[in-house]
Design goal:
Blueprint (H helix, E strand, L loop, with lengths): L1 E4 L6 H5 L4 E4 L10 H4 L8 H12 L4 E5 L3 H13 L4 E5 L7 H22 L3 E2 H7 L16 E2 L1 H9 L13 H4 L21 H6 L27 H14 L11 E6 L4 H9 L3 E5 L16 H10 L11 H10 L5 E7 L6 H10 L4 E6 L5 H16 L3 H6 L12 E7 L3 E8 L4 E8 L4 H16 L6 E7 L11 E2 L2 H12 L5 E5 L4 E6 L5 E7 L7 H11 L3 H8 L13 H13 L4 H23 L5 E4 L6 H11 L3 E2 L7 H14 L1
Parallel strand pairs: 1-2, 1-3, 3-4, 7-8, 7-9, 9-10, 11-14, 14-15, 16-19, 19-20
Antiparallel strand pairs: 5-6, 11-12, 12-13, 16-17, 17-18
Helix pairs in contact: 3-4, 5-7, 5-12, 11-15, 18-24, 19-21, 19-22, 20-22, 22-23
Length: 668
Amino acid sequence: MRVGYVCKYAPIEALEAMGAHMERIEPDESLVSFDAAESCMHANVCSFAKATFETVLSGNLGGIVLTTCCDSMRRLADALRAQAPGLFIHVLDVPRDTSEAACALFERNVRKLLSAYGEFANATFSEEKLFAQLGGTLCPAEGNCDSSLELDLARLHSEAAQPSFRLAKSSSVSQSFANSNQAADSAAWSEGCEASERNADEAVAAPQVEPNRNKAGDTEARSEGCEASERSATAAAAAAQVDNALQPQTHFSPTMPNVGIAGARANAEIKRILEAHGVNIAFDITCTNAIRRFVPRKTDTLAWYAHDVLTQLPCARMRNISPRKAFFDQVLPQVDGLVYHAVQFCDMYSYEYSDLKRTSPAPILALETDCTAQSRGQMLTRLEAFLESIGASQTEHLASQKGSPMSTAATFVVGLDSGSTSTNAVVMNEARKIVASVVIRTGAKAGASAERAYREVLERAGITPDQVACTIATGYGRVSIPFADENVTEISCHGRGAHYFNPDVRTILDIGGQDSKAIHVNAAGEVTDFAMNDKCAAGTGRFLEMIARSLEISLDELGPAALESKKRLEIASMCSVFAESEVISLIANNEEKPDIAAGVCRAVAGKAYSLMRRVGLEGAYMMTGGVAQNPGVVRAVEELIGEKLFICEDPEIVGATGAALLALEKSE
């Protein structure tokens, strides 16, 4: 039977020993909505839970094993039980600790899971099969298999009530992960714990435990009272072997950029994008990507196995996450960057990210996705911009792909910025002077708008296509411009363009039609950090257009109207829909349009300021994009940062100018 799982704490090998075909659930990459999930789950349940719900219902799984990593997994189990009563659905309770009692409790919970699965699939568990599944030798060459290890359902029921094996551990079990090179010195387990004798009367009297019984007595880990044996040299070597086996696997390339992946539930698309851009993935320690390599033990196989599963490198929900910090301390100085992924609106990993952002020697990209196909665009933009900022400098990158030098006939380059609202083009000559520029409205097709902008800018420059040595495209529509020689993210292009107009600029705020971004650059105009807000119209040009329509004024009038405000009004919601309703209510209360406009501009500025703080507030400051032409927003941002914003004559062509500069470098 095919059984899915979503957490590294699932006892995959034990279920495989019972004949289950375990499959990691990767949400369907073609998902565009959660119609089925939202019909029976709360709106605030995380997108990963909803995507998993859709994937399970549309697949051919016979069951799913979830863990108590968060409340969303519990809600997912409830919804699946209601919608798919024929599936095997089990929620494994995972302790948040790795103490002696916690390991015993976890072993008991695993036994409950195996018992429930055995009843459902008519399968039998044996520790001998688990030993073989883990890579042990099933039968000794000189004798028969030990059939006494066979566990029937009755024994599984009885042993679920009390663990048969007590682990004697040092208090510093976690340090075995932090000090992998000294594993023998930091061995966290003692090797020779003997279980006390069970007599026949006790076995008969032991009450059977229902798989899903929820009693307080069942949550107490009872130990059997065993004595830890002396640790011999052999035991120390065995402990070292276990430590190394449980170490997260790393692989560093001497020739490729090395990037690690951390956080929660990173999907396969992230890896594909990184690998397609020539990046070596040095490690992946997200929820389900740990390499499982447990050392088999002939005696008390299940108890040791449960211990090893629980004491892997901990996830961020565990009480003691010092081994994670030790791991990061060891590997981050060796990587070029870290991609830290989180599911949208989930804050479980936010504290770790904040700490790493503050202390890490390597650049970190916070990547948040919602498990839908629409996430690919934002992933691609962020990952490409991140790689452009952490790899070789843009000059070196382009030099590796350099085309033919400029000839006397081809003395110009073109930069194209294909945005959601406008498509902008710049022609630049070999002296780095802008010869011509155009800004046109983006139509229904980005490629067609780019072609039109390209023709118009060449006409304005008075040149023909054969005089263009290189064309580089940027913006969201950059991949839809087939005649461009190369495409580069708008992050790098805005950084390069801002530096062109003002070399003193260090912090850039770009507010376009559908997204906002804050960018920090160094003295050479190279991006050192960035933060983006997209997949939401709040605080963007679209948001301001919507408010202007509600006020029955043009977008061009909104900013000047805000400057005439006499009364301070606050717009509480930044959601475009709710903010529009709030504006309509203010209109109904006879509030003046200039006061409402000023309140909207302050709301946009507040959202922009939060992005700027994420990359660091360092002057000089520059604002780009179409919203930079709105004096109400500009004034509101300046009030927050306490400084004047530098705004060039045409702030909409900054990205296209950066693309033209990169095209010039490629052609030189």
